[in-house]
Amino acid sequence: MVSALKITLIFYGVFVFYLFGKYEKIPYSARKVIFVIGNGGCLFLAGGLVTSNFYLIKGGIFILLIHALIDAHFLISKYEMFKSIEKEEEKKDEKE
């Protein structure tokens, strides 16, 4: 199970850095893959708690924290997008 965690962490890291490097955000189509890997963090955390394996616990918490940061980035970028749209509409209304 530890080797599965290592493979998952490497894949997750490469995938996230690739997406942020290419698109500067996580595309909607890739969010499903991120969500599935984030659920893997729950499984590693649970497996670590059952077997008392501290490495699995740390790995599961790390995956969950990265998933939470990606979700926070998604929410903040959506908020900023809507905020900029409102400002553009206000400027448009002022011109009229």
- What is the string of SSEs from the N terminus onward? HHH
Shape: elongated
Distance between the termini: 64 Å
**Proportion of helical residues:** over 70%
Please, what is the average pLDDT? 86
**Main sheet: strands, sense, barrel:** none
Radius of gyration: 18 Å
Strand content: under 5%
What structural class do helix, strand and pairing data support?
Answer: mainly alpha
- Structural domains: how many: 1
Are there runs of 5+ residues with pLDDT below 50, and where?
Answer: none
- Strand tally is 0
Please tally the helical runs, counting DSSP H or I stretches of 4 or more residues: 3
Describe the structure concisely for a colleague.
By secondary structure, this protein is mostly helical. About 90% of the residues lie in helices and about 0% in strands. The protein has helices at about 1-25, 30-50, 55-95.
Provide structural commentary.
The protein is mostly helical. It has helices at residues 2-23, 28-51, 54-95. It is built from three helices and no strands. The protein is elongated, with a radius of gyration of 18 Å.
